[in-house]
Structure prediction request, 319 residues.
Amino acid sequence: MKAAVYDQAGPPDVLKYREIPDPTVAPDAVLIAVEAISIEGGDLINRRSSPPPRPSGVVGYAAAGRIVETGAHVSDREVGDRVAAFDMQGSHAELWAVPAIRTWLLPPGMDAASASALPISFGTAHHCLFARGGLLRNETVLVHAAAGGVGLAAVQLAARAGATVIAVSSGETRLAQIATLGADHVVDRFSVDVIDVARQVTRGKGVDLVIDPVGATLSQSLAMLAPEGRLVFVGNAGGGSLNLDLWPAMQSNQTLLGVFMGPLFERAHVHSTVTEMLRMLENDEFRIAIEKVFPLSQARDAHDFAEKAKPLGRVIMVP
Prediction:
């Protein structure tokens, strides 16, 4: 099969399009003929900073396609089923062997690009907002990096739940598009003081919940929280070390919650939530934003675009 592989960590140039052996299928796994690949933030981080476990390593968390082989112990998936899938590596290829428990059956006719992007973005956003963040109707939530996949999902899910949504991003065009997805207030982080906006919107109280995938903004996030507010930390997209003074948070009885979704997708409640959101997507109840589609053979260019172009939503590759 053809795949985008890398032999050492580094910039997008380390990705090469090569012929490599087809993956073997474990007894509890399925083999997917990939139709679309969603480039996730973790893919970029892994390629930049994590050497592959073996030569010609295949990066990639998320894809969708059709099952062409099932392992001996798999009883709930069949050859021909179309699925979305998640795993810790391997999606940047024509074929992908994935544990069956990390797949979701697609509704008939769903396009593979949207399906590939949904589990991680919407699954993560839902878990951050509700399972960890405990968001309630009429509370105020602030979403950092609102133009990213998780951010756009969080904006839509929080708005559907009846919360007041403050979305933080940059660029007039992107902010206008985010506003159409349900954000009550859009904030350009380069033009205004985000803490001041949060205090103005909440009349000095502070926000009830912050979703922070950036990391470098954690001190800012804590500063805008209401007493007894919650901060869900779900990444370090900004890079660098994370140093926090937690004394003020303790004095205000605030809560800092971490989310790393990797091991959680196999849990029954998380898996069923993703299945339900695929159904909602089929019914046009929310939107998957896709900025650009590249052929897999141009994986280097796709990763470069995803890192530098500040896309709205996801960048997709197709084999």
